[in-house]
Amino acid sequence: MDLFDYNQQSSAEEYMPLAERMRPRNLDEYIGQTHLVGKGKTLRLLIESDKVPSMILQGPPSSGKTTLATIISYLSEAEFIKLNAVSLTIALLRETFEKARDMKKLYNKRTIVFIDEIHAMKSNIQESLLPVVENGTITLIGCTTESIQHDIIPPLVSRCRVFQLQPLTDREIRTALLQALEDTERGLGKLKLTMAPDALEYLADICNGDLRNALNALEAAVFSTFDSDVVELPAVREAYATRINTISTNDMYNLTSALCKCMRGSHTDGALYWLARLLDSGVDPMYIIRRVIVHSCEDVGMANPNALQVAVAAKEAIQFVGMPEGRLPLAQAVVYVCESPKSNSVYKGINAALQTVRDHRAYEVPAQIRDGTKTYINPIDNPGAVIQYMPQELKHTRFYTPQNAGVEGKIYVKHQEKRTK
């Protein structure tokens, strides 16, 4: 390294964001994820023994996925190649595979390929990984913030160990912030500043587990603090004034599931909370109202047929007025579904009918109700007429069983009276 290289490196480190400078260099410095890398845990033992298998690390932003892969690169004797899925091509992958084969053949050295944002790879590019992961040409470490079930092809998932990382807790965020303030080598320790307790609590809470954002906000707050050796709450508020509620694909499905289950369970407050989370995170309201329409039939159904009308009207209203006003008809539809009596008889009925169709051959339509038949009798004009509506083989089958709830209670009573006759 000559003088110019040294100056360039020193300059790069000086202007490097605090979050990057404070990136842990070993497992002892690593914060969080004790269920994976705590003392005696399987993944920690695999890393320390340099026996890491192909794996996919899934978790929210700034939960430590890239840092964990970087630590593996420091501790492993293997060749470590870092790629980003956003700009990855088949040609670059093939070149990487050839290098890995050469390393194994010439030096008996394995290759770890780290692919960040692996969910961004198209399916056909993901498929190119299958043979080299399976035969051990490479050890794959993939990182993703998205849903493994929806964004990674199943054959690749089956060839990897999946490790789920959790959002960092407020306590873990506070620990990292204090370390950054005290570290004189890579952090802000040379400034000899402390942080007011309320400022520390505020930043640990508002960052939503995103340590990268918290550290960079701390750095901004520190350099906006003059004539004081304490970082106060107003400086932190200016550096990080708005809570960012971004969500991944996996989060969106979980939040949607929570909303649906609250509607089914008639828990209105819970449904409004999860609805607000979805809306605040920028989820398309049309995606949400489609779920509300489905549940107005699936969970309310005949107990209150008006629920479907309210949900469809909400869809029309959202399209007509747009957002943010569209949140009102959407919330009204959610509340209506929550507060309505529940019946899933329609859901059970159509599912039972479909299952019967799939389990049996296609039965003939009874002659009396075929198109163009001369033997059909209009039951409205002839209430006592006997008509064969079902195939002979299914004449005793019942798909629809009304439940004694809401409006459907009247249908329930009618069916009960028929059975007693």
UniProtKB/TrEMBL annotation:
SUPFAM superfamilies membership: P-loop containing nucleoside triphosphate hydrolases, post-AAA+ oligomerization domain-like
Domain of life, source organism: Bacteria
Gene3D superfamilies cross-referenced by the UniProt entry: 1.10.8.60, 1.20.272.10, DNA polymerase III clamp loader subunits, C-terminal domain, P-loop containing nucleotide triphosphate hydrolases
Keyword line: ATP-binding, Nucleotide-binding
Residue intervals of the AAA+ ATPase domain: 51-168
Pfam families reported for this sequence: AAA (PF00004), AAA_assoc_2 (PF16193), MgsA_C (PF12002)
ATP-binding listed as a keyword: yes
Similarity comment: Belongs to the AAA ATPase family. RarA/MGS1/WRNIP1 subfamily.
PANTHER family: ATPASE WRNIP1 (PTHR13779:SF7), WERNER HELICASE-INTERACTING PROTEIN 1 FAMILY MEMBER (PTHR13779)
UniProt protein name: Replication-associated recombination protein A
Organism name: Paenibacillus filicis
